Amino acid sequence: MNVLFISCIYSEIQKEEFLHNSKRGYQFAAQNFQEALLDGFILNGIKPYVLTVPPLSTFPVGYRKPYVKTVDFLYKEEKFGKSFGYLNIPFVKNEAICKLRKNAKKWCRSVKGDKYILVYGLHPNLMSVSVALKQEFEDVKIGILVPDLPQFMGCNKYYKKLGIQRRNIEKVNMMIKDFDCYVVLTEPMLNKLGIVQKPYVVIEGIYSCVDMNIVKERNNDIKSILYTGGLMLRYGIGLLVDAFMKIKGDDYRLWLCGFGDAVDYIKECMEKDKRIEYKGLCPKEEIVRLQRNATILVNPRLSSEEFTAYSFPSKTMEYMASETPTVMFRLKCLPTEYEQYLFFFEDESVDSMAETMKRVCEMNKKELAIIGEKASRFIRYNKNAAIQVKKIVNILKEC
């Protein structure tokens, strides 16, 4: 099966540099999802050809270097394709798209047999490349994986003011019907995109195995509450911090990893409550270590927000796989099969969140361990890369 993966994944030889030079906007969730996708293809006996334009915040506000280099795309020390560089200033990334288009066309000409192109995300430039190739080559089928809807994603304020976000959404809506099949994270996405009578599959995420041999080093004298991911106010981070400060006890800690517009508020609260620790942007290995060693993991994303019906937080799978109990709201996107493995906040008040976190932290440690282990088994055996990507492979073949 010939698969071209047009994406925004980072080559492994770039990841350390991107993390070091990013002042904001390192794409942890998207990177983990796309790596899990590659793992799934490999486990299904398919080596996709990868063409990618790595997304970074622009120089100099969000990234320390003005230029991103073109390099081989490597994953697990093996070459899969190309990662295209560009001048990293606002409105100037067409150079990378032109290179990607040229290389994608070369792949279509050189590969024999049926060809399948899978695009990651509703990025108009990447979508336009695949649509053009479908029109030029009769044996090309195109599918798109939709992790988020653009109207509910964060956006540079200048892009909004200049109407660029609105125009991009219009382009997406115009091109989305040209695809032959769809991979979405939630069922409501289909109606929002106006997708009807074409093959599709719903997969809320993909779990790719991480090193579970990391030894648990939990300090039994400390009750640690951990959040990892985008530290955005709209994700309920301010509410989480406020709720934590309501909990009494010198043995409690709140650990926060990531970056976003809530960081300033977090630092203000750290002055008032020394139990709060902001750990900044951490590499994946450190995130996994912290998740394995926390008392509980928390996702404060609010169920009342409209966008929660149109995205599935990847940290839900990530958290559950760590064997550490997870506390969250009952999001609209959450399948019922997950509920028996999670703890839920009763309502979106600070007092309710504080009470729930304290109650779970105070539970018997053996009972918490059993719940965590059950959640981990559910994810590892039912949502692993081989099983989830097999669904994608099957839907591509239906095109």
List keywords for this structure.
single chain; 8-stranded mixed β-sheet; 6-stranded parallel β-sheet; 399 residues; alpha/beta; 14 helices; 16 strands
Can you walk through the features of this model?
Helix content is 39%, strand content 18%. It is built from 14 helices and 16 strands. The strands form three sheets. It has an eight-stranded mixed β-sheet with strand order 4-5-2-1-7-8-9-10, with helices on both faces. Helix 9 (263-272) links the parallel strand 12 (252-257) and strand 13 (276-280). The chain is globular and about 65 Å long. The relative contact order is 0.12.
Please sum up the structure shown.
With 399 residues, this protein is an alpha/beta fold. It has helices at 15-21, 28-43, 94-110, 124-136, 157-161, 164-175, 188-193, 237-246, 263-272, 284-293, 315-321, 350-361, 365-382, 385-398, and strands at 2-7, 49-52, 67-68, 71-75, 78-83, 86-87, 115-120, 140-146, 181-184, 200-202, 223-228, 252-257, 276-280, 296-299, 326-328, 343-344.
